[in-house]
Amino acid sequence: MRRTGALVIAAGLLAGAASADGPETGRQLFEARCGAGCHQLPEPDSLTPAQWPLVLQTMQKRMQRFGMTPLTEAEYDAVLAYLVAHARRNP
Predict the structure, then answer these.
(1) Residue 24 to residue 87: CA distance in whole angstroms
(2) What is the largest CA-CA distance in the chain?
(3) CB neighbours of residue 2 within 10 Å
(4) Residue 4 above 50 pLDDT?
(5) Which residues contact 51 (CB under 8 A, 6 or more apart)?
(6) DSSP 3-state assignment of 42?
(7) What pLDDT sits at residue 23?
(8) Helix (H) or strand (E) holding 17
(9) What are the CA-CA distances from residue 74 to residues 25, 50, 70, 89, 90 (Å)?
(10) CA distance 17 to 29
(11) I need a surface site. Which of 5, 28, 42, 83 has the fewest CB within 10 A?
(12) Measuring CA to CA, how many Å separate 34 from each of 3, 5, 25, 26, 43?
């Protein structure tokens, strides 16, 4: 029984480590928080790296205006990093 418990704990730690601050976190947050029934998600390569911060700032304001919890600073940074990493490179 102890061995099973240790394996469950280890698996949980590994799952947390794999997603914490990694590129998947930004994608997962983007899909979960930005695509939560509000609108269809744009493709990350639909905008340039310079355009994404402006879009995210606008969305933060809209979320607040509609009584939704905006992204935390860490969430914002993770989503922005994901979007910029996958953004269109040729304007």
Answers:
(1) 15
(2) 58
(3) 6
(4) no
(5) 87
(6) coil
(7) 54
(8) helix 2-19
(9) 10, 19, 11, 25, 28
(10) 16
(11) 5
(12) 40, 36, 13, 11, 12
Place of tokens 């939560």: 36
Segment 19-66, tens digit of pLDDT: 445 556 899 999 888 887 677 899 999 999 999 999 999 999 998 998
- Distance CA(57)–CA(12), nearest Å, equals 33
pLDDT of 34 = 83
DSSP conformation class of 76: H
Please report where in the chains the tokens 């997603």 appear, as a residue: 19
Helix axes 73-85, 52-65, angle to 10 degrees: 140
